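QA checklist item 7 of 12: single-chain prediction sanity check.
[x] sequence parsed
[x] length recorded as 175
[x] structure emitted
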Amino acid sequence: MSEGASGGARPTDPVGRALFGISKFLATLGSALVCVTAAMVTVSVTGRYLFDAPIPGDYDLVAIACGSAVFAFLPYCQLVRGNVVVDFFTNNINPFAKAILDAFGTLLYLLIAILFTWRLAYGGLEFHANGEVLANFNFYRWWTIPFDILCMIILILVIAYTLTRDICDVQRSRT
């Protein structure tokens, strides 16, 4: 994305501030999930090495927790423009063309996020209907899906917000 006015600056309008607060909370929650996962892996590996007693289902728990953490990071990452950007080809173009490409990229991201949210909801309903549980204990696979969907809905709102900022950048760079 462009480094213009809508770069990684903290939003000052009420909608932006609310989205920033929610996104920051989710990112903090995602960080806590990663820390708990790291501690669990440490305990499991130590238990496996010293006592031949790992935490049962640690692989599944790590996968689920890391997946939920990634969903939690996405809104904040988009809001502060922390996504990976390959701007090798657009480094030397004029600001107007760059702003248009940034807005187009954000629009594509919005469409992809909507598609992923729809499919995640559909998959969550299927997991719920099947009653699939992890093999080592009674942890239903669908239990984390509502949190993931919530994170995706917040992501959609954040992308829509950043798209409006990108469109303002296009209008600003035209003049």
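[x] summary fact logged: The longest helix spans residues 14-51.
[ ] second reviewer sign-off
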